[in-house]
Amino acid sequence: MTGELLIDTSTLIDFFEDNIASETDNLMAESELAISVATFTELYKFLLNNGKPQLWIEYKRKLDNYKIINIDKNISEKAAELSHRFGLSFADSMIYATAQCHHILLLTSDSDFKGKPNVILGKKIQN
Asked: Residue 65 carries which DSSP code?
């Protein structure tokens, strides 16, 4: 597959921590990668919450290889609809709406997205 993928926070963390299965890694290697600005925020929050703020500089450097998509009014409206329809959290609905509004697939390992349209569930390494 070639084309653009929007990477969800869960998959991005798994990728940065070398915890994704080879098929997900291969899919990412073959695609143009993008993230929502909501993922940018969630990633930093994850590091702060887990006592790893020192990794932020390294992670930001890695994010230079990703297209970062800002949230606008259209994405915000779509997020409200998706949150209402699927019961998604604020951040998840913003990320999903970003993918929907930009007509790109969402790659995630978050089970909250299981069965949703235009979503690819990535796999983690089995421990």
From this structure: T
pLDDT in tens, 3-35: 899 999 999 999 999 999 899 989 999 999 999
Q: Quick check: 1 and 105 in contact, CB under 8 A? A: no
- Region label for 32, one of left (φ > 0), alpha (ψ between -120 and 50) or beta (otherwise): beta
Comparing C-alpha atoms, which of 42, 38, 45, 43 is closest to residue 99?
38
Q: Return all residues near 27 (Cβ < 8 A) that are at least 6 apart.
A: 1, 5, 107, 120, 122
Domains in the chain (CATH in brackets) are: 14-121 (3.40.50.1010)
CB 14 within 8 A of CB 20: yes
Q: Quick check: 125 pLDDT over 90?
A: no
